[in-house]
Specification:
heterodimer, A: about 110 residues, mainly beta, 6-stranded mixed beta sheet, 5-stranded antiparallel beta sheet, globular, B: about 110 residues, 7-stranded mixed beta sheet, 4-stranded antiparallel beta sheet, about 55% strand
């Protein structure tokens, strides 16, 4: 059974706070780790696809790091804004196509 | 470029009926994957199609089936509906079918089984 775990399950922060979440995945047969942001009533939006150990990707105030040897990825949001409120999902691909195994997500709420 | 579209957006069916959901990928994308989202289970992989061939299948009963057409549009079918099939069904498309390809999701079809 392939388990992808995310923590925390939910997070409330104040506007301007920086925050980070964790995604844990099996370290064997690793091909890629995907991060998505899913706002209520919208489609999941792709943030990053990470493939190499030590990878670091950045998109505006959001960045992510990857450690394939120990099986974890961190997502960071700097200076959280209310529009960052969403569920952040990570998904693991062990190769052989497009099959993604998703974690259950971290629900972020940014309050004014 | 238009995004992934799914029809219908909402469906209400009764137990025992069957349902067909449709997904149109982004123009030029050849791979379509389907996922089921329920509150208890999160996003679960159903199947993946590339060039009209099913490449991967998730751990779902045979009542769940799908196909892909030559224009890359895909349909999934659920026969003999059960209450537990109530869920949001998402499809995602990508250019090819590699593990590092970004998958772009549609808005989903919300299926309610009564």
């Amino acid at each position: 059974i392939l388990n992808v775990e995310q923590s925390p399950q939910s997070l409330h922060v104040q506007e301007g706070d920086s925050t980070n979440f964790t995604c844990s995945f099996p370290s064997s047969n690793f091909y890629a780790l995907h991060w998505y942001r899913w706002e209520t009533a919208k489609s999941p939006e792709a943030l990053f696809v990470m493939t190499l150990n030590g990878d670091e990707k950045k998109k505006g105030r959001i960045s992510a790091t990857l450690n394939t040897k120990e099986g974890y990825s961190y997502l960071y949001i700097k200076g959280s804004q209310p529009e960052d409120s969403a569920t952040y999902l990570c998904a693991f691909n062990r190769g052989g196509g497009n099959k993604l195994t998703f974690g259950t997500g971290t629900q972020l709420k940014v309050e004014l | 470029k238009a995004g992934v579209t799914q029809t219908p957006r909402y469906l209400i069916k009764t137990r025992g009926q069957q349902v067909t959901l449709s997904c149109s990928p982004i123009s030029g994308h050849r791979s379509v994957s389907w996922y089921q989202q329920t509150p208890g289970q999160g996003l679960q992989f159903l199947f993946e199609y590339f060039s009209e061939t099913q490449r991967n299948k998730g751990n779902f009963p045979g009542r769940f089936s799908g196909r892909q057409f030559s224009n890359s549009r895909s349909e999934m079918n659920v026969s003999t509906l059960e209450l537990g099939d109530s869920a949001l069904y998402l499809c995602a498309s990508s250019l090819v079918a590699g593990p590092t390809d970004t998958q772009y999701f549609g808005p989903g079809t919300r299926l309610t089984v009564l």
